[in-house]
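A favour, since you know our structure tokens better than I do. What I am after is a single protein written out in full by you. Could you add the entry underneath, on a fresh line?


***
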Amino acid sequence: MNERVREKLERLPRAPGVYVMRAAGGSTLYVGKASDLRSRVRSYFTPGTADARFFVSRLAADLDDLETIVTADEREALLLENSLIKQLRPRYNVRLRDDKDYLSIRLDERPPWPRLELVRRPQPDGARYFGPFANARAAREAVRVVQRLFRLRPCRDSVFRGRSRPCLLHQLGRCDGPCVLPVDPAAYRTAVRRAAALLEGRRDSVLAELRDEMKSAAAALDFERAARLRDQLAAVDRAAWGEPQRVVEVSDVDRDVVGLHRDGPVALAVVLEVRAGRLVAVRDYPLADLDLPDPELLAGLLAQRYAAAATPPDEILLPFPAPASDVLEAFLSARRGRRVRVLVPRRGRGRRLLALARDNAEQRFLLDARDRQSAAAQVEALGRALHLRRPPRTIECVDVSHWGGEAGTTVAAIAAMLDGRLDKSRYRRFRLRGDHRGDDYAAMREVLLRRFERARSGDPRWTAPDLLVVDGGRGQLAVARAVLADLGIPDVALAAIAKPHDPPDDRPAPSETTAPSSPEAAAVLDAVYLAGRKNPLRLRPGSPALRLLARLRDETHRLAVSFQGSARRKHRLTDRLADIPGIGPATRRRLLRAFGSVARLARASADEIAAVEGVTAAQARAVARELARGPGPDEPPP
């Protein structure tokens, strides 16, 4: 332990907060929270400490610096700890293997006309949250289904305020159009309440309520309304997303039931979400490889799942006690507004639910293990095929995309793999700063310089991969070699993947804008160039090595093309506004802030534009006149 750390240990405050332990070079070793920073941090270095975690004995030798952040209370420390773990990726903390936040559904019931929206990071803002959904497709499907069933508005507030006529969804019967039409606020509130109940898994209560209302309408001879309610009743009864619901107990208590299965350093946790006796969702969480005891693995999962979670249930059932579960219980109780209990059942119904969670965790672990074994075999095959010293655990692929050399549309993307599986936490997108129209080599050089300068700086989020793949031929490979040599980064293997029918200078053919339809199709076409080898390496079509490369290359191409398309649309729309005489940057910002986008601004009248603070009548007429001319080439109509 160095003198700087000793001095900081002497000055530690007696206050709640978060501590960050760093190694030489700035990499993060561990992030923790404490109700008393002085007592907790100094306990790591007290002889005979009861802390048996495997890394504690190494801290005195590895620790180079210590940082503390004081918080208002331990609950705030829990939130900050969770955020820093995701940001800094410490070596000794439990991390979910895909560090990306899962989607949750947000419902803020305070505005006059609430809406559902998808978010990745729930905030303590008074809104209700449902989830998180490990399956993003299920989350989006849930929002779509519930909006359609209860005709809730889907549009953002900026669009809602700027509308002058109902949108297409109203014409399709999927939205009541409260933006411009007289909608009964009480009826809309009822729809919002029922939508929330359905998202909570209380389908039976929603069905009973709709059934009673339908009977009342029929008794009042309001047959048209009764028919609408009948159709809605049938639609709610059919509604489904994610896991099929099934009854697992007769109870009104909402429970999350946690199961854990591990094999050595590899583990997978499962959370069964039981709402009013129905199993409404099964979330699985593969955990990063760490040699930690089971209670600490469980504590890490709970902190990350619930620190910024949706509305917590009445009870969280655990298979065994977890450290700091009392802190979590107090935190969730305060967030929910009534008591949340963290329990370890020993018998009865709770123990049976835990057995169900354990069985699900084991089953999903075995499926995940088969996927890992298949991916590991592909990585080993790739290492042999490319004659690498060791199998490449981390692989990145770079692709540059532009639209016919048009200015402002050149972008690049990096997709990544870890142990043969796509690792979205390492995906990167770049807007190129230089004017590289027609010069793919210069564009590739800029991207690689920006990417590897960050690696050289020691940023743990930008560590260099074992293998870098560039989409192109010998020319692109030469650019990559030169950049790594200039930056002094020698330990990255290089490869380029190209089509054998590309032109001789290895630039992509202009007509070739789409990726092969499948890895099998790509495997027939691709050639791999290696540094120091003149002729391309012809991997066997369908071989595990080529399939892995083709999959990564196609994912990179998809990422680059989708980013390039959005950049192009934004660039062209913004250019139209920038070309209007008398409209400067400040006025553009005011207009875009008021209307949300150029497309929505184009639908506004001159009077509506002039109503924006700081916009004159003459400017409003000029904007309305220019945008009324219609969309430009390749620009979607507003």
Notes: The two ends are 63 Å apart (CA to CA).
